[in-house]
């Protein structure tokens, strides 16, 4: 027993410093390259083992089976191929991390965007029904975080009816439904009602996958125009 | 009367064994001590270059490292590098960040100079010339031997620090500003001092000189 302990301690002491390029670049451990030869220069990485990051280690994600990764990668890359390299550089998005059961402070989430580290973590096992839309929703958060001054939340909030108020944060509300309303009344989904930035992200994602309801109310129409106009400020060639 | 005692056969064998062991130990010690023993030192004067104006010669403890610079890929990055080389600013500057078989980094002109090295701040120093913009849009294959300018976490913060990769690093494309490639003498960089437990090196190796082939 002592001998085993000694061997383990020796291994710990004498293990050489490993040069982990990915960790050095984006500060997420246990990742490997999935695909990097894309024309828009997005780098797709996957979790080889579970990882924990964030303040107080509050972000967790787990490795996925290869079959699931391969399946979901096709959907993800098809959607992200719609953003060209120039646009991705402007918004500061470069690394897509694929893993499953992604959570932040024990709350499951579809994705975690980080425009500072140029990274978007995506849960490949997120609800299939909304999966594609959610990809664009998370991309919008990167856009928004990189261009806060363009997507003014005060201006946006003023589109809503006077007595409407968003929640303090996206996780401090139970308005989490992602089904698209048949009758919109200023919002695409229940989740749109959580915060201004989630509302914007929902509008953007609906525009990207063209899943708008037949009748758009005037408030929502204004919101759509706001998103479209501001995207053109970032990139005059952006196509929705 | 002193009686002469003859050594037995086994004693003679032990004596020969000890002598062999001593020779072997001494030989090994000398070999280990000279880390540059099997490193070829290239003489740039004996090599013909297509673009001699773009050749920089980095002299390190184990010999010359010959770098071809690519001004057509990163004009501003190469211009900054040449400016500093011509002012001999890189002489006696430490390889302060070394990862075995991965990369060597040098060029902290403020805190990495041999005569006043500052281990607390090394890696954060400036050249005094200000920062330059990143040049990361041109396609570049970051293969073993590629030379690039280092930066902080943010783009457009390149200054004087540069690194050379000792293995292929495809993820560095569009991340760092490439300025050239080592065409001869990469082995000499593989012998730069590193630590097993830290990327930052205590009592590091230094650049002896860094010159343009044609001044």
Describe the structure.
Chain A has 240 residues and is α+β, with helices and mostly antiparallel strands. Chain A contains 8 helices and 8 strands; from the N terminus they run H-H-E-E-E-E-H-H-E-E-E-E-H-H-H-H. The longest helix of chain A is centred in the last third of the chain and has 17 residues, at 218-234. Chain A starts with a helix and ends in a 6-residue tail after the last helix. Chain B is an alpha+beta fold. Chain B contains 3 helices and 8 strands; from the N terminus they run H-E-E-H-E-E-E-E-E-H-E. Chain B has helices spanning 9-33, 75-86, 186-190, and strands at 55-60, 63-69, 97-99, 103-106, 146-149, 162-165, 177-184, 209-212. Chain B has an 8-stranded antiparallel beta sheet. Chain A binds chain B through residues 14, 16-17, 19, 21-22, 25, 33, 36, 41, 43, 89, 94, 116, and chain B through 99-103, 137, 153, 169-175, 195-199.
**Average pLDDT of chain B:** 94
Strand order of the largest sheet of chain B: 3-4-6-5-7-2-1-8
Q: Report how far apart the termini of chain B are.
A: 81 Å
What count of domains describes the coordinates of chain A? 2
Main β-sheet of chain A, in a few words?
8 strands, mixed
Average pLDDT figure of chain A: 89
Q: Into which percent range does the helicity of residues of chain A fall?
A: 25-40%
Key terms for this structure?
heterodimer; A: 240 residues; alpha+beta; 2 domains; 8-stranded mixed β-sheet; 8 helices; 16% strand; globular; B: 215 residues; 8-stranded antiparallel β-sheet; 8 strands
């Amino acid at each position: 027993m002592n001998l085993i302990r000694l061997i383990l301690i020796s291994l710990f002491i004498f293990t050489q410093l490993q040069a982990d390029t990915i960790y050095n670049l984006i500060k997420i451990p246990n990742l490997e390259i999935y695909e990097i030869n894309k024309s828009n220069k997005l780098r797709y990485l996957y979790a080889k083992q579970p990882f924990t990051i964030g303040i107080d280690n509050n972000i967790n994600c787990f490795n996925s089976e290869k079959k699931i990764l391969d399946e979901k990668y096709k959907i993800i890359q098809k959607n992200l191929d719609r953003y060209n390299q120039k646009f991705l550089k402007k918004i500061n998005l470069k690394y897509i991390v694929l893993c499953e059961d992604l959570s932040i402070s024990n709350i499951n989430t579809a994705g975690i965007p980080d425009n500072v580290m140029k990274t978007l973590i995506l849960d490949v096992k997120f609800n299939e029904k909304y999966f594609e839309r959610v990809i664009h929703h998370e991309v919008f958060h990167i856009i928004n975080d990189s261009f806060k001054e363009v997507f003014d939340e005060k201006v946006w909030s003023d589109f809503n009816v006077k007595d409407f108020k968003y929640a303090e944060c996206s996780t401090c509300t139970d308005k989490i439904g992602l089904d698209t309303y048949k009758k919109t009344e200023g919002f695409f989904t229940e989740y749109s009602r959580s915060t201004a930035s989630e509302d914007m992200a929902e509008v953007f994602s609906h525009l990207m996958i063209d899943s708008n309801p037949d009748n758009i109310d005037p408030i929502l129409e204004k919101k759509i125009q706001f998103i479209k106009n501001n995207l053109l400020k970032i990139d005059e060639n952006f196509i929705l | 009367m002193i009686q002469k005692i003859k050594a037995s056969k086994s004693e003679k064998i032990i004596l020969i064994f000890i002598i062999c062991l001593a020779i072997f130990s001494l030989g090994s010690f000398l070999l280990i001590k000279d880390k540059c023993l099997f490193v070829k030192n290239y003489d740039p004067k004996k090599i013909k270059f297509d673009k001699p104006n773009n050749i920089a010669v980095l002299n390190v403890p184990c010999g010359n490292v010959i770098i071809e610079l690519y001004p057509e890929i990163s004009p501003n990055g190469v211009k900054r590098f040449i400016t500093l080389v011509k002012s001999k600013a890189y002489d006696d500057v430490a390889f302060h960040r070394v990862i075995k078989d991965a990369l060597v980094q040098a060029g902290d002109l403020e805190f990495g100079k041999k005569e006043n090295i500052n281990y607390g701040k090394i890696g954060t120093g400036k050249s005094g010339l200000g920062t330059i913009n990143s040049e990361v849009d041109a396609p570049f294959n970051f293969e073993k031997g590629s030379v690039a300018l280092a930066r902080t976490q943010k783009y457009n913060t390149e200054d004087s620090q540069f690194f050379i990769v000792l293995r292929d690093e495809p993820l560095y494309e569009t991340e760092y500003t490439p300025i050239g490639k080592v065409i001869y003498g990469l082995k000499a960089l593989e012998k730069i001092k590193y630590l097993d437990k830290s990327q930052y090196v205590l009592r590091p190796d230094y650049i002896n000189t860094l010159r343009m082939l044609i001044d």
